[in-house]
Specification:
Blueprint (H helix, E strand, L loop, with lengths): L3 E11 L5 E7 L1 H6 L5 E4 L10 E4 L2 E3 L4 E7 L3 H7 L6 E8 L11 E6 L6 H10 L4 E7 L15 E6 L6 E2 L2 H10 L8 E5 L2 H14 L6 E4 L15 E3 L5 E3 H4 L2 E3 L15
Length: 270
Amino acid sequence: MSLALAPAVVVQRSTPMRDAIELVVHHPPSAAAVKPGQFFQLAVAAPQTILRRPYSAAWADPQGGRIGFIFNVVGAGSGWLAVRHEGHELDLLGPLGRGFSLEGERPVICMAGGLGVAVFPGVVQALVARKRRVTMLLGARTSSQLLPADRFTGADVLTATDDGSAGYHGSVVNLFTSTLRGRVGVEAVDILTCGPTPMLQALIENVRQLGLPLESIQVALETPMGCGVGTCLGCAIPRAGGGYLLSCIDGPCVRADRIDWGRMTDAFHG
């Protein structure tokens, strides 16, 4: 693991979808080291904040030395980050954790609910570079909260909205089930997903009903974290067979068969 504790410079700030901020920072060592699905701990200087905030790298450009982070404002720390602009410095700790396993030849379905989409631009880019067929399923409450399809070049992009304002009218899990049932040889597919715990639990139930193996699913967990390096034990998730995994070092990208989904709690919708 390459670990960088150093200032990065914000080079761009934008709002890629409603209620979300994207910060692009310049830090060549981190951009070269990060793998799709890994995260960084970002230092914040808001009043009464002590801990760093964990954010997955949305994408990285090793040649340009840049990394993108996409996040919502949910508290003092993210609020402080949201008003950083070009020229501001940020302290990054990372890259941390285990990213997605992207090797293989089977088609891949990537499924994101809400801000779970933040990890996928770089994931899709890496899968397409490996010449894998990718279907990207995006779910949100309404169309303005969808990350634009052009952020997933090379993938087939399908959308679902709760209010029917774009794409499939309903949940992204139902869109997933409909998409999968329309395929031939559905067992020969890998599934990468990120989103709120209820969405993930619904996906697991649907996959079980379809008779697919849980080990074909990799989940990027949105568990709250304190230290990010396995010391504070604040990101424990229930392990299948008993005990716990730590999201920060065993994940955040974990195969679904390693998790006890009956004991998972709905802790975070960041």
